[in-house]
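Running this now, will post back.
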Amino acid sequence: MRVLVTGSAGRIGRHVVAELRQYGHEVVGADIAAVGTAGAMRVDLTRAGEVYGALAGCQAVVHLGAWANAGMVPDVRTYADNVTGTFHVFQACAELGVRRVVFASSAQVYGFAGEPPRYVPADEDHPLRPLNCYALAKMAGEQAAAYFVARHHLQIVSFRIMGARTPAELPAELAQVARDPAAGRQLLWTRVDARDVALACRLAVEAAAVEPGPYNLTGSRVVLDEPAADLVRRHCGERTEIRAGMDGVASPLSCARAARLLGYAPRFAWSMSQQHPER
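Update: finished.
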């Protein structure tokens, strides 16, 4: 399958490209920073014509391209560029007949950095409480996805990704959480290896059919070697309801929907006692 990957030069994008190629897909990389990157073209997603040109001949899209967080550029540009680029991708897919789209949303839509979760395991029905322009843009992208699913019959999977890091970044991240578990609450003491994000993207591309909508995506467990429910009780208190299914070290962000509908099962369960460096 010929797959366009936007944001292909990014820290997650590089792993998505590698995963797809390993499994026999022809990948077209597109990134505003792609000059000099083998197998990729420079594409500005805010320019519709460039998006249409990059999509030509593709059968699926993994849309990762965006300003990766608030504060990288002024807020007005973060929101405007991310929303515009996502709309261009969806519109081009609708007009060019590309039905399968994987959209990188973010678990920032839940606002856990500002308030603890209402309940755990937190599933896709958890209330959305955006704290910045980046999260607002991701919410707008999910709303646009629902529109294109309803009006143009696209199959769009929106991954609410939490704590994605490269294998090289993860040891320092885990050490930081161990030093300050209270601060670890904003990502629910969980990280996901970029290689597992790439796995989920490939599964969504290859599935015979997908159920459109949001899917939580993170690692399978908390990175500290203690029960997740204990961490929630200690750092969230009575503000968070602990529901059935919050067992052992399982992540407080539920990925059950991705597991059930896409077969997502993270390959790299990072913790203080178990690490998985890239070889």
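The helical segments are 13-22, 48-55, 75-96, 133-152, 170-179, 194-206, 228-236, 256-262. More later if anyone needs it.
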